[in-house]
Amino acid sequence: MGRLLTWHPERIPKPGSAWYSSPMSDDARIRVDKWLWAARFYKTRSLATEAVAGGKVEVNGDRAKPAKEVGPGDEVRVRLGPYEHIVMVRGLAARRGSARDAQGLYEETPESRAARERLAEQLRLAPAAFVWEDKGRPTKKDRRSLDRFRDDRRGRP
After folding, report:
1. Do strands 83-89 and 57-59 pair parallel, antiparallel, or not at all (unpaired)?
2. What's the pTM value of the predicted model, to 2 decimals?
3. Which domains does the chain have, with CATH numbers?
4. Quick one: pLDDT at residue 9?
5. I need a surface site. Which of 17, 85, 87, 142 has the fewest CB within 10 A?
6. Beta carbons of 105 and 90 less than 8 angstroms apart
């Protein structure tokens, strides 16, 4: 049989304890790599840290280090692949929440959104650079056709 779950009031986190989550004030700040992870720009904190260390993130126009702190009102530029997101920090979160909660942590500038949409349209309309048709091993018919082509180029009958 399973254990009965009981309520233990002494296990409720107290203010000041490590597990107590209080609402963050306006002057609170958090590491940029942790904020990017909480805002769901990156799937893991280590990916966020690598991106910041690799120069893919700027805070208020300056290249950031992973421990750089951000707060409400800061401008963060994030390059993800060919796209660049320019966002204003609106909120902070110590833990990663749902996607809906993450969207409340930032506000993307209209110029950034328009530039991303233009780039997406250009990439959609651009011809593919190289398309590989993965058919596997050539068939006997394909090999004979290729041999005929090579023989024609060499001048053999």
Report:
1. unpaired
2. 0.66
3. 22-127 (3.10.290.10)
4. 58
5. 17
6. yes
